[in-house]
Write a structure and sequence with these properties.
Blueprint (H helix, E strand, L loop, with lengths): L21 H7 L17 H11 L6 H9 L6 H8 L4 H29 L2 H14 L1 H10 L3 H16 L8 H4 L9 H7 L7 E2 L7 E2 H12 L3 H4 L3 H18 L14 H18 L1
Antiparallel strand pairs: 1-2
Helix pairs in contact: 1-5, 1-13, 2-3, 3-14, 5-13, 6-13, 7-8, 10-11
Length: 283
């Protein structure tokens, strides 16, 4: 495996893509691109690896990233149990979850493996950084809407810094200088404004979500500058496909073996998602 590297977008969801590309979103909308560092000598116990992966992928939104967070050692409180239990559409969600996982195995991962074979890691990370730089705009807007002025200032600074010194965002100079992302989205904005999460939901080719986060996902998309720079749907689709494949490629080896170590994969991913959203809202 290759060293831990972090790149693309703080909140990038799995996106709807067309024909073969549609499959790309089912597994893998990656909020961040990360690589797990191979340990020297014997592999540590599974629970230790899970804890490390949960920390490394704390802002990721892939099913496996959520799984790592869900299965890492932690204490659960009453709030987490209540959030996890609110899944009235579980039979439907489980079917959609399995569909997305099968699409990932059949299409997304093989495409990402071929992409990874052709394109060097460093170039993949630069591409991911460029996409993430564009996502500074919705993060900036949502920080303002939530009254998080420090986050808004940081996002504005990140965008200006990376767009200039970082050559159009290809290099994440802001992170190197300690300017952290705000990781805000419109789903969190709705929560700050008092909206409840609603039922948990899984649909084809999209990340896990609640009803509130589904609305947030749609509105967040309207804040993306690419919507207005690339007015034709096929152009935007191509950009989304490229970003999804790039992020999936960077994460090919990160969670190998974890799924096999988890008895109830669906519940683990659901729990990881709800806990991550709760944490982000409180930050």
């Amino acid at each position: 495996m290759r060293p831990v590297l972090q790149g693309a977008h703080g909140q990038k969801p799995l996106v709807v893509v067309s024909i073969v590309a549609l499959a790309l979103a089912g597994c893998g909308s990656l909020s961040h691109t990360v690589r797990a560092e191979s340990p020297l000598g014997a592999e540590p116990p599974t629970e230790v690896r899970l804890a490390r992966l949960a920390e490394a992928s704390s802002d990721a939104r892939t099913d496996t990233a959520l799984l790592a967070q869900a299965t890492a050692p932690r204490s659960a409180g009453p709030e987490t149990e209540e959030a996890e239990d609110y899944d009235p559409w579980e039979p439907f969600n489980e079917k959609m979850f399995e569909f997305n996982r099968n699409v990932d195995k059949a299409v997304v991962k093989p495409v990402a493996q071929a992409y990874n074979f052709v394109l060097p890691d460093r170039l993949q990370i630069m591409i991911g950084n460029g996409f993430d730089n564009i996502r500074s705009v919705p993060r900036f807007i949502n920080s303002l809407l939530q009254g998080k002025w420090d986050g808004a200032v940081r996002e504005l600074g990140r965008f200006l810094f990376n767009s200039t010194v970082g050559i159009g965002g290809l290099f994440d100079v802001a992170t190197m200088e300690g300017i952290k992302k705000s990781n805000e989205d419109f789903g969190q904005t709705l929560a700050v404004w008092g909206s409840g999460p609603g039922p948990y939901l899984v649909v084809p080719f999209l990340p896990p979500m609640t009803v509130r986060d589904g609305v947030g996902l749609a509105v967040n998309g309207l804040m993306d500058p690419l919507v207005y720079v690339l007015p034709f749907i096929w152009d935007r689709l191509g950009m989304q496909v490229g970003e999804t494949v790039n992020d999936r490629s960077l994460n090919l080896e990160l969670f190998e073996g974890i799924e096999e170590a988890t008895v109830d994969l669906y519940s683990a991913v659901r729990h990881g998602y709800l806990q991550r959203r709760e944490r982000l809202i409180k930050e």
